[in-house]
Design a protein that fits this description.
Blueprint lengths: L6 H12 L2 H7 L4 H15 L4 E4 L2 E4 L1 H21 L12 E7 L3 H16 L3 E7 L6 H5 L4 E4 L10 E8 L1 E6 L11 H6 L1 E5 L8 H7 L6 E6 L2 H9 L4 E5 L10 E5 L7 E7 L7 H15 L6
Parallel strand pairs: 3-4, 3-5, 8-9, 8-10
Antiparallel strand pairs: 1-2, 5-12, 6-12, 7-10, 7-11
Length: about 300
């Protein structure tokens, strides 16, 4: 048995609604003869005449009356499936979104994100999880909705990305530290004791490479896994932390921040997500919120 032509459902819906071949043809932009042929196919498919002549008009058969409401609902459901998803009613959206971020992102941008989402969608909850590596498996598996970070070649090629902001490294020390006053030269920076930052525990990074060009080497007193830990440690010691400026904005409150006395490459922090969520209206809304919050002037909060 061959599969039925589902396009006939639309034709049947219009015919049963109009009860007239000419008017039905006009609604579907068909000729009356084409509509008559479609009615003949419907009669053959259903095994029922569906519409029969009564005087100058047509009246539905009992089978047609039985089908009318069901056919209308089927057509409406199909149209709903095939049209683009509607913008969600944010006031009634109840969903938890998981964001995987490097240490410091939630502390710095989290308050603004939570305030904005709570205002626009009170039923939305943000869940921040720490990004321990650049493996894109959590995005592929759907356990993470969004991720932030510097795009790496090891990330899945199918991932969608959006640049959030440009960043650069700056130095930060506690107020009263010897580096909180006066001009900081490369040599003066190198004489201090430093906090290394590496998720893998590596001792060398972009700052060390830049210092090598000046024939200098810094003393790494300790290595930590994240920016917020480095800032907190520098706040309560004489150690020097070198961290991304935008990424650690409010973490450095009441501390002394200074430009590094040598050039280090700027880098772009991006938002990443899996294509499965690209067209989802709620996900698209959240991506817009993250983009707006991260684009705010740091001096405006």
């Amino acid at each position: 048995m061959s599969a039925p032509d589902l396009n006939l459902l639309v034709t049947l819906d219009v015919l049963l609604s109009e009860g007239n071949v000419t008017r039905a043809a006009k609604r579907l932009h068909l000729s009356p003869s084409a509509m008559s042929r479609a009615l003949a196919r419907l009669r053959e498919t259903t095994g029922d005449p569906l519409l029969v002549r009564a005087g100058r008009g047509l009246v539905p058969t009992p089978r047609a009356l039985e089908l009318r409401a069901r056919v209308t609902q089927l057509v409406q459901d199909a149209q709903s499936v095939l049209r683009p998803a509607e913008i969600p009613d944010l006031q009634h959206l109840h969903q938890t979104f998981t964001l995987r971020t490097s240490e410091g992102f939630a502390e710095n941008f989290g308050p603004g994100l939570i305030a904005r989402t709570s205002s626009e969608a009170p039923g939305v909850r943000l869940r921040f999880v720490q990004k321990l590596d650049k493996d894109s498996a959590p995005l592929r598996e759907g356990t993470v909705d969004l991720e932030t970070g510097v795009i790496a070649s090891s990330m899945g090629p199918e991932l969608r990305t959006q640049a959030l902001f440009r960043d650069r490294f700056v130095g930060v020390v506690r107020m009263g530290h010897s580096l909180s006053e006066g001009e900081i030269s490369p040599a003066r920076y190198a004489t201090g004791r430093h906090i290394g930052i590496s998720r893998q525990g590596l001792e060398m990074g972009p700052i060390d490479e830049a210092m090598t060009a000046h024939g200098l080497e810094r003393e790494i007193a300790t290595i930590v896994g994240g920016f917020s830990t480095a800032v907190a440690m520098a706040r309560s010691s004489d150690l020097i932390a070198s961290v991304p400026e935008r990424h650690t904005g409010n973490l450095r409150d009441a501390m002394h921040t200074f430009a590094l006395p040598f050039t280090t490459p700027e880098f772009t922090v991006s938002l990443l997500w899996h294509p499965r969520f690209h067209a989802d209206p709620a996900h698209r809304w959240l991506r817009g919120v993250v983009l707006e919050i991260c684009a705010l002037d740091p001096d405006q909060g």
